[in-house]
Amino acid sequence: MLRKSIQRTAWVSDSAETYYVYLEVKGVPGVTYGGNTIQANKRTKVDLIKSLIYDNTKATVTLDSSALKQLIHLSSGTSTPLRRISFSVTVNSNQIIKLKNGQIVKYNKILTNDGNGYDVRTGVFTCPVAGTYMFVVDSMSQPGTWLYLKVNKNTVGKMYVSVDHKDNPLIQVSKTVIVKLKAGDHVKVENDGHSGKMYYDMYSGFTGVLLY
Asked: 147-189 pLDDT, tens per residue?
């Protein structure tokens, strides 16, 4: 059982009133607050703890290790902590990347790869945990280049550098999507034209992050 008492002073109409707050977290059906017993569920206990700690700067709370574990458990509930999944990759080369029809773009320079979902050998991100993800693809490419963002075999985003820009040798394009994935889904950037060209270095990249 965790039972803690806190004394604080509340200033009302220029007069001081001192009262006590008792929190009984485990094994007792209610919470005594200022002498009045109220039926408390888990949410009520957490709210009281937070208000006492954060809203009252004059209160001092002392918790032993067992009490601290109880507080952490109440605050976090029973949900599983969100895993940190993210990656950001770019092209490490010193020349224009020439892409064939249906070729997966292999971004071979890793800036970050939390969760190890991105495979630098294949250019494919394999979803390690189900959730909602955001992906960003950007490319500096020559006119006539088609790039598709795919989840498994399904296209979820497209980029195209129009041939109307033939007088401009390189055009920067970008695409952002938010999609729901299942564990094991594959996400990749694929060239969909007969030929495609992508500028090297950090002008072209692929990024993904688990949102929730």
From this structure: 999 999 999 999 988 877 667 678 889 999 999 999 999 999 9
Q: Report which DSSP code applies to 49.
A: H
Distance of alpha carbon 47 from alpha carbon 49, whole angstroms:
5
With contact defined as beta carbons under 8 Å apart, do 175 and 206 qualify?
no
Q: How many Cβ atoms from other residues are within 10 Å of residue 189's Cβ?
A: 27
> Rounded to 5 degrees, what angle do the CA atoms 116, 110, 211 make?
55
- For the chain, how far is it from start to end, CA to CA, in angstroms? 34
How far, CA to CA in Å, does 197 sit from each of 85, 130, 194? 30, 33, 11
The total of other beta-carbon atoms located within 10 Å of residue 111's CB is 12
Per mean pLDDT, which range of 24-28, 74-78, 191-195 is the poorest?
24-28
